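Regression report. Comparing outputs from two consecutive submissions.

Submission 1:
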Amino acid sequence: MLSIGIDLGGTNIKSALIHRDEGIIAQDSVPTDAGRGPDYVLDRIAESVQNTRNKATEDPVGIGIGSPGIISLDRTTVSNPPNLPGWDVVNVNEELKKRTGLDAVVENDANLMALGSSRYGEGQDLDSLIMLTLGTGVGGGIIINRELYRGATGAAAELGHVIINFDGPSSNSKAKGGVEAYIGQRFLIRNALPLIKKHPDNTLAKEYLDKPEALEPVHLSREADRGNNLAVQILSEAGRMLGYAIVNYIHILDIRNIIVSGGVAKAGDWILEPARAAARERLLPPYLEGFQLSYESLGNDAALLGAGSLAFELLANHR
């Protein structure tokens, strides 16, 4: 059985042909050209679907789409997605059905990372897990008893906006001091720059103070690998704040398996070990049993696999 998974981004539209047992068997990518409006972008999605569909040996059961923005409870409509101008409210299912003949279901992209990990990745042997996507911002997804938890209206798991310091810095949230303000890529770098300025002889200052926009977490982890104590300190502080957030997630949900993905997570144990230590220090004793913090090696493929999985689970009986 085959499905098509779509990762709708502001820059590129990625699609994958998903085999229910084998995972990704073919991929395609086209530019989004988001500034040209919803109809044009929907045509581009249909183009990518057809490119992928041409590689199939049987007709896919349907399309699963990971999208930013607010997703309707029935998974048909996207509202006000960032980086997609003009998308006030778009019924993606109707629009793609007209263009491709296939039914489509849409879900928050971070939720699909969680679903993809649960079905094909680090979480496939787990009944319940919390996924944290540590990228430009911080997103999340929750799997409970092998099912995606969506909340009362479908908007659950905005885990990046959980407050860990109500007087803390701002991020993409009305509330200050959310975990995203410490571990989201742009905010981690923003917080690091004042400390880097205090060490003008450090490699990080020499290479990036004149071009701070070029500094990314991967550069910090490389410097940490080379023994740069300043880089270690910066990543450790970000990891510590992540650990505090994890304490809140576990105490609320009683889910002990935390999986991280995204560009910031590629810093690996430079962030994850301080996060584990901070969480273990503050978790109530009953919650320590079974606590695990791990990295999802599938990367962005997890979102495509999650999108394909959603199509299998919701559309296979519609054929």
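Submission 2:
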Amino acid sequence: MRQLLRFKYTFLTFSSLIIITLGSCDKDMSVSLGNTNENFGITVVDSITVNASTFQMSNLPSATTGTILLGKTSQEETGSVKSTSYFKLAFTNFTNDIPNDAVFDSINLVIKPRTNRYFYGDTTVAQKITVHRLTQELETKNISSTVNGNITPIFVTGPTIFSDQKFDYDNSPLGSLTFNPFVRSLDTLSIKLDNTLGNEIFDMIVSNNVNVASNEAFQQYLKGLVIVPDDQNTVILGFSDTVAVNINYSYIGNDGFNKHGVKSITTGDRTFQFNNIEYDRANTPFAALNASNKEIKSSQTNGQVFLQAGTGVVAKLDIPALKEFMNEPNISINKAQLIVETTGEFFFNPFPNPSSVMLLIANDNGIPFSYVPTPFSSTIQQVPYINGNSMGRNARYVFDLIEYINTVNNVESYNTSLFLTSSTPNLFSTANMALIATENNLPKIKLNIVYTKFK
């Protein structure tokens, strides 16, 4: 009896090795475990076709991200991206603590890099930014009644400001700065502003003017500021959304020596700090992709597909054969992996791929209403970037779809697609792009399924 058990154990082990060895084939295969009277087998499907296209999402919120995203960069494959940042200003206190004999010196705006030192693009070239005064009041927008069926994107939870919105500002800059974007050593950017504005605010403070009696009144006087990158810039940088506008003054102290003081005005309500994202895809395979023409199939771009944070571009994935496959009788899914291969490298690359990505579920109007969760949980499945290697292996993202594929034949899943996109919160506060690798003019995206079939 023990010999018989040992034989079966050896045979099962040998059969498992056969399955592993043959698992890389592109054909379906069935391996019998025992004799012809057994009623189950193991089958490996090494590829279910995934149709892909590049899709332009609408209504991407860009307020309250904690990041002033500022700059412009260009890539040959997908064109240019430019981010301009708007914000209101507010006093933290209304105490007139400026000495009576003080005189105005200067006014400057100070911004600091985010702690993660975010950048995307070429940091070896000097960058230029200008500061302008808003002439139009910043306002949030409510889209709940404007989209089809009153379904808003899952990431829109109420009135906000979106990345495609613009507000009027004075074309004459209040100040400008040219600087070297040494990301690791960059500490603070200080931009000298027009003294006329500074002197006016200083005089209002010392005279207790009604315009500086409350932030509501002050924001009627100064609707806000916008920082605009130069069109020749080469990098997008992430700065903290805590801005300081310093009113600098000097006075004679009690000891008779000249002293200096500062009255600071800082960022107002973060609801009104947002980044306007513009793109230009002229002379690229994606030139026709815009808010009106939302989708370009991979067959129109020689297999090229891309996704990009900030601009709202996603890789739209459809798996038409999956519904039929899941209707097969007597099968039990053991493993399901979606593998997306990309070009480029994450490390030592001025244009890194997103550090992680997620899958949104969108309806037939292209509105994402849900997401693919981590299996057997309610959290969004955010998969990390896996670097390639020098042996020719592409970088990749790998999703576990073991739970998701069991839902594809549910009524609520009809006419839906998957949107591959950068994970939150980076979707709203960065500009990283991933170009899907191609083979034979097709995107290198595949769905691998391992399942047991009962006979």
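Expected: both submissions complete independently.
Actual: both completed, but the second showed a warning that disappeared on reload.
Relevant detail on submission 2: Residues 67-278 form one domain.
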